[in-house]
Amino acid sequence: MATFVRTQEIEHAIGAEGRFALRVTSPEVEMRAIEGDTARVRVEFELRAATDAHADEAFGRLNYVVNRGDGLLEVAEPKRDAGGIATIAGILGLSSDRVETRVVVELPRRASVDFAGVSAEVTVTGLGGQQQFKTVSGDVVMSDLAGSITFKGVSSDVSIRAERPISLRANTVSGDLSAIAPRFDSAHIASVSGDIELEGDLAPGTTHRFETVSGDLSLGVVGGVTLEVRGLSSDVDVSVGHRSEGSRDRRRYVMGDGAASAQFSSMSGDVSVHAARRIAAPSPPAAPTPPTPPIPPARPAAPPMSEADQLAVLRALERGEIDVEEASRRLAGGNGGG
């Protein structure tokens, strides 16, 4: 069998803050932010088929379903008794390993995103609106983010690198979660057995919550934090300056001014707290620079001596009327007279 490539192009103006939804099974997905108000989706199929005509037939049956609305674009792979592309490929005589799909999505930066995937590897870059991701057995890597992020995963690892403040709510069963941001306006992360890594400044005024059954928490702090740990079997390692208080099953660790509030609850997970290594602490405001005193205007330079004047100075020196020091001063422009 030969390999044939077919591409489905989808485009719709949803507005700068429109909504986009994507439902897929097992493709590679890339989402990235662009300027403007138009959402663009490119679905690339690699089909192993006996003939070009057979590939065309398969492509027609495998095209994604599109729903366009006012400020809305929804894209989903076709369904056949909930089996999706794998089932359709089987009906067409193509085994699932003979159909490979890649989805590339370009969205307005502040668009809202609703993604659901099974066994889909996802990368997201530059988005800053409300973002919701649901995955099963698929990893998600996000970078250059802002806005509000909600993640639900089963056997899925997620990596979040934000360049601007974010709000984060996540629920995982067995995958690990790593999130780094300059500031978390809010954070609520629950995990059954996956580990949680979070690094950044925790905003005061709310309680940031971390809950696990057996997963560990690694917390990199920037400013002052009051951390409450609930769990009889949880070991706590705080490597920054702090004071501790409370009982064995409810301990409090106050770091710095303790302005931010965080809570870790676990049956057997451990927690470690350290100074943030990849996020710089906010710099104090620079002291005002004293004003620079004005520079007095320079005295106008004396006009250059004429050859006749220079000769007169030398003759006066020769006659002994002036000494060498006076002659030098006059030749340098101090006084051209006799």
Question: What do these coordinates show?
Answer:
The chain is mainly beta. Among the domains are: 1-125, no CATH class; 307-338, no CATH class. Helix content is 12%, strand content 51%. The chain contains 4 helices and 22 strands. It has helices spanning 52-62, 84-91, 307-318, 324-331; strands at residues 2-13, 19-25, 28-34, 38-49, 65-69, 72-76, 99-108, 112-118, 121-125, 130-136, 140-154, 158-172, 177-191, 196-202, 207-212, 217-221, 225-230, 236-238, 243-247, 250-255, 260-266, 271-275. The protein has a 22-stranded mixed β-sheet that branches. A hairpin with a 2-residue loop joins strand 5 and strand 6 (72-76). Helix 3 runs antiparallel to helix 4 (324-331). The longest helix is centred in the last third of the chain and has 12 residues, at 307-318. The radius of gyration is 35 Å and the shape is flat. The protein starts with a strand and ends in a 7-residue tail after the last helix. Residues 82-97 have low confidence and may be disordered.
Structural classification: mainly beta
Helix and strand succession? EEEEHEEHEEEEEEEEEEEEEEEEHH
Query: What best-fitting shape do the alpha-carbon axes yield?
Result: flat
Q: Based on DSSP secondary structure assignment, what is the total number of beta strands? A: 22
**What summary fits the major beta sheet?**
22 strands, mixed
Annotation field: number of helices:
4
Mean pLDDT value: 87
The level of helicity is 10-25%
Percent of residues in β-strands:
over 45%
What radius of gyration results from the CA coordinates? 35 Å
Pick out the low-confidence regions: 82-97
Measure the end-to-end span.
109 Å
